[in-house]
Design a protein that fits this description.
Elements: H1 2-29, E1 67-68, H2 82-85, H3 90-96, H4 108-118, H5 124-127, H6 129-135, H7 137-142, H8 163-167, E2 169-172, E3 181-183, H9 194-199, H10 201-208, H11 211-217, H12 220-224, E4 228-231, E5 242-246, H13 247-252, H14 255-258, H15 263-267, H16 272-280, H17 308-313, H18 323-342, E6 345-354, E7 358-367, E8 383-391, E9 397-401, E10 404-405, E11 410-411, E12 416-418, E13 420-423, E14 429-430, E15 440-443, E16 453-461, E17 470-479, H19 483-490, E18 499-508
Parallel strand pairs: 1-3
Antiparallel strand pairs: 2-3, 4-5, 6-7, 7-16, 8-9, 8-12, 8-17, 10-11, 13-14, 13-15, 17-18
Helix pairs in contact: 16-18
Length: 516
């Protein structure tokens, strides 16, 4: 046997060497696999009105700072809907589906605002990549935000900020903002199909749950890439960079950041209001788990009293949901949204002074639970105001500021309002969120910083026959849109109801007749 092995060994070794050589030659000669994604040249009539970057490279997603890891566009047929993810991740899907992230690119308020902006310029649709990069990244990455629609639509592109758009992130720039995310969405897309997931679940986990990605999406930097918004000459009339949304910077400079309390800790806690109250008591332990609910401040999108108007506002029903289930999930998340809003603010009477002819009140609007300014975001539409009324000893109203007209949707013009204003090149206020013609941002009153307060002084004249004691009632209101915007852009007479963030009553025993 040994003699036979020795006799045949040279032949065996030759065969092994020839086999290795054949494998090497085959790998050297076979064509390289195609790079994942879609080449820019393969999208007919794709418009690039913004030129190249400083290195001469094309910028297919500009003026959004969104980009793919290899610079190529996405094949929409390979990006599955979140409904497909629900086959294995049902709880996460049910949390995400009613969220503001899920409808970020389809809700009617957003769609009408983008459409109005697109109509302002010849390159308006291409400029809308600035908006869509954060609200509908699938649309931008597939090349559908273009005046010539040469890319077929898919369910995944209508889902706003979906599973794939977060779980493929590899880099974020929260200071640059404007959607400054890099997504490895073209890499490993084959691991999204159900057969491949079943055949190689570990590959699927590595592609869409990589350590680098998980670390990034657990950080505030990830949120800041979209929750920092600046206007510049590429998509507005601003001659210098205008800071429109500074939510990340507000958090970064706060007590919350210094104590490692991130955006996700509050907005992805299963019960955000309870977690905020926990923090307010000094307990800064992390939540036991993170939910995919992304609870925010847009209470209107969960107001089931609006009936069919709510379905219209939300842009219909997402793939993977029935009408009945959609309604149930919205109701559940609406309760959580309202509770979080009520955990954010407080009111306090800091001082009251009485002269012979005037009652002077110092009322503090307090940011008790938000890790950013109150209000925050793009607040030319979202705004907050203070309503104050004073009753005398007879129960008669002697002062009232900040009333809301529920029939016309109008706020008392003399109310104290926290809101920013878009101004055109002539310095005139733009009421309709016209991003592309905005030249400057100003504030009626800046937002209240985290753990801070803004003291509002009321100087109330008193008639001779008015006597105390006095009862002061203060109510802090929040609203997600101005009525001008609703009439002009949404083209509807729907009155946007306000939301009460906080209320307080203060009894003053002072009497004008006995005060010098």
């Amino acid at each position: 046997m040994k003699r036979q092995l020795r006799a045949n060994l040279p032949l065996l070794m030759s065969g092994v060497l020839l086999g290795i050589a054949a494998i090497i030659v085959f790998n050297l000669l076979r064509p390289a696999p195609p790079e994942p994604g879609v080449d820019l040249a393969d999208i007919p009539f794709y418009q690039l009105p913004f030129g190249t970057d400083e290195n001469g490279a094309e910028r297919p997603f500009w003026p959004s700072r969104l980009q793919t890891e290899n610079g190529r566009l996405v094949d929409p047929s390979k990006i599955q809907s979140a409904a497909a993810c629900a086959m294995c991740h049902q709880r996460e899907f049910d949390e995400w589906a009613p969220s503001l992230h899920a409808i970020a690119g389809r809700d009617t308020v957003y769609e009408r605002a983008v459409g109005t902006n697109e109509d302002l310029h010849r390159d308006g649709i291409e400029k809308a990549r600035f908006c869509e990069g954060c609200h509908a990244p699938g649309e931008v990455l597939a090349g559908r935000t273009n005046r010539f629609k040469s890319v077929m639509p898919s369910d995944a592109e209508t889902e706003g900020i979906s599973c794939v758009m977060c779980h493929t992130a590899t880099h974020a720039d929260p200071v640059e903002g404007n959607g400054a995310l890099t997504l490895a969405v073209n890499t490993g897309v084959d691991q999204l199909s159900n057969p491949m997931i079943l055949a190689a679940p570990r590959d699927h986990a590595r592609a869409f749950g990589a350590t680098q990605t998980n670390t990034l999406i657990a950080s505030a930097d990830f949120c800041g890439a979209c929750h920092t918004e600046n206007y510049d000459q590429s998509m507005s009339k601003a001659t210098t960079r205008q800071h429109v949304q500074t939510t990340f910077a507000e958090w970064r400079d706060s007590w919350y950041a210094r104590n490692d309390i991130t955006c996700q800790d509050c907005h992805m806690a299963p019960d955000p209001a309870s977690y905020v109250r926990q923090i307010r008591k000094g307990d800064i332990r992390k939540p036991e788990r993170y939910a995919h609910n992304f609870i925010g401040a847009n209470y209107l999108m969960f107001d089931t009293s609006l009936g069919s108007n709510l379905t219209w506002l939300r842009g219909g029903i997402l793939p993977g949901l029935t009408e009945q289930k959609n309604t149930r999930l919205i109701k559940e998340q609406g309760k959580v949204t309202n509770a979080l809003l009520r955990a954010a603010a407080g009111l306090a009477l800091k001082d009251s002074r009485l002269t012979q002819a005037r009652l002077i009140l110092d009322i503090a609007v307090q940011n008790l639970g938000a890790g950013h300014n109150l209000p925050t975001g793009v607040v030319d539409q979202k705004h907050m105001w203070l309503e104050v009324s004073v009753l005398d000893a007879t129960g008669s109203t002697i002062y009232h500021s900040g009333a809301f007209d529920a029939e016309r949707g109008q706020i008392d013009p003399d109310a104290i309002i926290w809101r920013e204003e878009f101004l055109d090149a002539s310095g005139n206020r733009i009421p309709d969120h016209l991003t592309f013609v905005t030249a400057e941002i100003s504030h009626l009153r800046p937002g209240v910083p985290p753990k801070g307060e803004d003291i509002v002084t009321y100087d109330i004249p008193l008639q001779d026959d008015v006597t105390g004691p006095y009862r002061v009632t203060a109510r802090l209101w929040y609203r997600v849109a101005t009525q001008e915007f609703v009439f002009n852009t949404l083209k509807t007479d729907l009155i946007v109801p306000p939301f009460e963030l906080a209320n307080a009553t203060f009894d003053l025993s002072m009497d004008k007749k006995t005060t010098p």
